[in-house]
Amino acid sequence: MSTTIIATCDFHSSVLDGRTTVAALARWRKAGALIIDAGDFFGGNAFHEWSRGHVEETILTTFYDAVIPGNHDMADLMRLRTPGLFPPIVCCNLTPPGAFGGRWESNLLLTVGDLRVGMVGFVGAQAFGAVPVDEREGFGFTEPTPELLAVEADGLLGRGADVVVGVSHSGFDHDVALQRAGVPFPVIIAGHCHSEQYLWSSKAKHVAKAPELGAGLLRIELHRGGVRSFAIEHHPPGGRLAVTAGEEEFALIAMIAEYERWSSEVVGTLVAPIPDRKAVAHAVAARARQVSATDAFVINVFAFRAGLPARVTRGALADAAPFDTALVRLTGERRAADVVELIRRLGEEPVVAPSVGGSGGVATTAYLADRLGLPYEPVEPRSSVRSVITSLFGSLA
After folding, report:
1. Of these four, 137, 177, 190, 360, which has the most CB atoms within 10 Å of its CB?
2. What is the pLDDT at residue 194?
3. What is 265-391's CATH topology?
4. Largest Cα span, the chain
5. Mean pLDDT of 178-190
6. What would the mean pLDDT of 328-339 be, rounded to a whole number?
7. CATH code linked to domain 3-259
8. How much of the chain exceeds pLDDT 70, in percent?
């Protein structure tokens, strides 16, 4: 007897491109599969800004058995509209604030057919550190060491689990290192990856992940001896506009039409398109250095998710820069090279715009300064990443 696990990761509110994946979730739900998400289901695009996470919450509530928290999920998890209906959050090394209204478990034991499946969720230190300071307030973090994970797995086995899987929002390489260290999971389902590698195996140990951004699913067949098989389902973007979930119709047609009206409003024009997010980062850094009147401005490439067309719509702006944050000037004596190195140590890719004969000092974003623990003061007049982008309108970035 085997049990099917269906997993997603790093969906990032990709409801429009992920319609085929949502339809597949409905079919697997009806077939009795165990459906889990490995984190970052929310956030990172214009759709999330429009929906405020409401549509994403409905998808998770309708189809999922368990959710692992990702670094982009915290704010949405704290403002769930129907926390009593939401699937359990499973994470053994993170505790939520007292105001969290849903169900939070360090581990979970589920019976699917004749198989009792144990699940241990965890979040890596780098992922938790990437949560904006205000969004992680009240959460308690503990390093997910092999010893901690073994205690959780042993507890599930003691309660009668036939097989225990790890579900991680830590990054693929991190999870491979845990498997090499001997954590007691036949498979770790990975999130926080955004990589081309989907499967690592060594003897009876595995790390596997789903395609990100709604582009597909991970399917695992489990039995009492561990993993029977893996399959990666890749889905084309788009697909059907509605799916059937049991007796209820989860219709997306009206919602998509409303979103497209909202997102299609033109907010400005560029002389030429900006081709990708790294080019956007360079354009923003150069203009932000001028706005802040400093010797250098430093920003992270991952603050951006896409390039910009010449004709910029509200949706294109939010897709390119979904994580708006204020510009700040670091206080005290700072060298841009030192700030760049600190940002690299966070696992980020920094971009720096130096000046020629500038007025002194280093500026960056409030998000990065908070993560680095560096004191700062706001840039005057007050500016943000998005206001810098809009200042590029009408110019060649």
Report:
1. 190
2. 80
3. 5'-nucleotidase;  domain 2 (3.90.780)
4. 72
5. 97
6. 92
7. 3.60.21.10
8. 94
What does the alpha-carbon distance between residue 236 and residue 242 come to, in Å, rounded to a whole number?
16
Residue 375 contacts residue 332 (beta carbons within 8 Å): yes
Average pLDDT, the chain: 93
Residue 53 reports pLDDT greater than 50: yes
Cα(48)–Cα(319) distance, integer angstroms: 9
Which pLDDT belongs to residue 246? 44
Backbone angles phi, psi at 301, to 5 degrees: -60, -35
Other CB atoms within 10 A of residue 251 CB: 12
Q: How confident is residue 247, by pLDDT bands cut at 50, 70 and 90? A: very low
- Residue in 345, 335, 326 with CA at minimum distance from that of residue 294: 335
Angle at 262 between CA 211 and CA 394, to 5 degrees: 95
The residue type found at 9 is C
User: What pLDDT score does 196 carry?
Assistant: 85
User: Does residue 168 sit in helix, strand or coil?
Assistant: strand
DSSP code, position 267: E
327-330 vs 362-365, strand pairing mode: antiparallel
Q: 171-197 as b/e, with b when 16 or more CB fall inside 10 Å?
A: bbebbbebbeeebbbbbbbbbbbeeee
Residue whose entry in the numeric block shows the structure tokens 């890719």? 349
Residues written for the chain: 397
**Residue 39 near residue 123, CB atoms below 8 Å:** yes
**What is the pLDDT, as a whole number, of residue 101?**
96
Query: Which pairs count as long-range contacts for 289-293, CB under 8 Å and 24+ apart, including other chains?
Result: 289/353, 289/354, 289/355, 289/358, 289/363, 291/327, 291/379, 291/383, 291/388, 291/391, 292/327, 292/329, 292/361, 292/363, 292/379, 292/383, 293/358, 293/359
Taking the C-alpha atoms of residue 164 and residue 151, their distance in angstroms, rounded to an integer, is: 12
Domains of the chain, by residue range, sit at 3-259, 265-391
* Residue-wise pLDDT tens digits, 374-392: 999 999 999 999 999 999 9
List, in sequence order, every residue forming a beta bridge with 116; answer none if it has no partner: 111
Residue 394 has a CB neighbour count (10 Å cut-off) of: 10
**Of 154, 185, 151, whose CA–CA distance to 170 is shortest?**
185
